[in-house]
Amino acid sequence: MTGTDHENRGYRRLFDPDGLTFGIGFPLTGTRESTPAVKEEVRLASHAESVGFDGLWARDVPTYWPRFGDAGGAFDAWPLLSHVAAHTESVALGTSSIVLPLRHPIHVAKSAATIDRLSDGRLVLGVASGDRDPEYPAFGVDAEERGAAFRDRVEAIRAIWREEFPAVAGEWGELEGDLDVLPKPTTDALPLLPTGNARQSTEWIADHGDGWLFYHLPEKTLRSYLDRWRELAGEKPFVIAVRVAIADDPDAEPEQLHLGYRAGVRWFREYFRDLEEYGLDHVIVGLEADDPAAAMTTFAEDVIGGP
């Protein structure tokens, strides 16, 4: 069971005990099948912070698989978040999510701690087992063993952060106590939020995660997940991602989209208030709009800050 040694500045920003908080996911321009314009992504990141979003979330998609239809914003999560850290001040920086079986734990530990230091403690890590089948042979990873690899890497990464000259081993390799990995993060360890089921049991996630990051769920299903989560994990945070398209008519009723809705701001305001009452801690908004900056402002003013 993890303690509180992971509660860095970003974690505290996202999981304010006073209520539901909101983040927004890259690519902020909505460019999902090619490479977004860097200056526009950074401009929108700064705008999101200025209007009141609490988190900026970058995805880890190592390769582009056209059949999947989503390049995830194209940029590698580590340099992207490092660049964004230099152009923002206090907003949390999150990964949604680093695919641990495809990455070496020493690299993950070092890259994450570096960004955490550069951002003065703002990094929160969603971590996943992955879902794009061709990537496993591309990296020489046995897809059938990804669940075990995920567990091994969580253990190794935390040991690397918490210990000087750690002694830890797994199928990825071995540290024998004669090498250290620097820098260490601003807290003893960084927050790790398993994403989806990550090929693990809910009990394992509750015991070993610092929270749980999940996909959009129907309200009835979400309530059952939250009830079970509270039984197992107590007050550890629960996060979901929701696709949001704001209709021109503020009174528009919801239209189902893949993993979210198109609706008017009044409906979204009530919807998120309901989710807050259920006990949800944070929402990663996937905002779809022709004018992303205007949509961010509308969401912040009329949904987050609405009457």
UniProtKB/TrEMBL annotation:
It comes from the Archaea. The keyword Hydrolase does not apply. It comes from Halorubrum rubrum. NCBIfam families: lucif_BA3436. Keywords: Flavoprotein, FMN, Monooxygenase, Oxidoreductase. Residues 34-281 form the Luciferase-like domain. One of its GO terms (molecular function) is monooxygenase activity. The keyword Isomerase does not apply. Gene3D superfamilies: Luciferase-like domain. It holds the Pfam family Bac_luciferase. InterPro entries: Diverse_substr_monoxygenases, Luciferase-like_dom, Luciferase-like_sf, Luciferase-type_oxidoreductase. This is LLM class oxidoreductase.
